Amino acid sequence: MTLNWNKLFITLCIIGITIQAMYPLGPGDEFRKLENKAFRPGEKLTFDVKYGFVTAGIAYMTVPRARKISARDAYQVTFEVNSVSSFDWIFKVRDKYETYIDADGLFPWRFEQHVREGSYSRDFSAFFDHRKMKAKTSEGDYTIPKYVNDVVSAFYLVRTMDFSKSKPGDRVKLYNFFKDKVYDLDVKYVGKERIKVSAGTFDCIIVEPMVLEGGLFKSDGNILIWLSNDDAKIPVKVKTKIVIGSIDAELTAFEGVFGKLSSKK
What we know:
Blueprint: H1 5-14, E1 44-51, E2 54-69, E3 72-83, E4 94-102, E5 108-117, E6 120-129, E7 134-137, E8 140-143, H2 151-158, E9 171-178, E10 181-197, E11 200-210, E12 223-228, E13 235-241, E14 246-255
Helix pairs in contact: 1-2
């Protein structure tokens, strides 16, 4: 029985990606500058990953530090998920993703992926040269649109977006680079809901990645993501349907959140 962990956890990260027309360059600026009220170094989010009533894994999203990369200030961001020991005999998971996000422009400079899922393994790295619009990866060099995102930086970008005027059904056109291609992905605004998880009760907005045929992420059912309805927009819950049931990731703990977490009740 395969639970398709990679789809669930990458999906937690993929919604948001670059919309070039929304973020034009300022006069005399080499790169765009975006307002970020959501996150800073020091943030750590912890999730239980459940299959039915069983806690199958633990996931962490962290912003450990800031550093210079390509002569720019950048935030290191990591995403890790591990199956719990009692679940390893069914399907062992040890996944880690890492990206460096430009502190001003909120686009990635470097991305790494290390996947260990059952008997499957994959290691991938990419350097995004936004000056030359090239992705230099461990598998080759590719042309990219300026400010294209990887799956992790995309999610952190969407956390900075304003959904206050969005109506149910509104969609945002997104783009994401993975492996060797730029993929389309729409994100639909679903609405609002108050939900209770181990970390507390939150007023949330709900978004749904709309998976297109031929894209990277294919699903037999809906993928829904609950984000706190405030400046921080931390992920509170992710729900994805699989062939037999569903997998939920729910927030259990948080620390170092920079954005105002006014949605917590």
